[in-house]
């Protein structure tokens, strides 16, 4: 009996829980043919809009401030045509999805948003399906090539009589798709 107990004790003693843990698998399986250039690890591109006086927006015939260039560069792309689609919230009460709402953190400027255009000045539609006839595109002529989407951003007011000063920060998501 002592011999059986000793054998069982030896077997049980070999199976002691040492530690528990978790495996987090991180990565992406993508049909992406390009890499963002000049963006942070998380794909963020910061665009400095500067400080714009309300009077500049009020006195502008179009209700816009000065244009700020927004270059989105891609590299290591497969040969093909690439489109960019921009998504983001529209300010409450805006009938068209062409103006990006300012973030609600802090004290955002009142009746002011951000208007994004292509390089010809045509406003981009937000939160819409890809439109090859209107969405900005670039051609990559060879595998391993690079290109740049050149956009413009403007502070924009739709109600010059009721603007309020405040923070002018906004966040938009973008997706680059290959045809």
TrEMBL record:
One GO term (biological process): cell adhesion involved in single-species biofilm formation
Signal peptide: 1-18
InterPro entries: Adhesion_dom_fimbrial (IPR000259), Adhesion_dom_fimbrial_sf (IPR036937), Adhesion_dom_sf (IPR008966), Bact_Fimbrial_Adh_Pro (IPR050263)
A Pfam family reported for this protein in Swiss-Prot or TrEMBL: Fimbrial
Recorded superkingdom: Bacteria
Domain Fimbrial-type adhesion residue range list: 24-176
Protein known as: Fimbrial protein
Annotated organism of origin: Klebsiella quasipneumoniae
Keywords: Signal
GO cellular component, one term: pilus
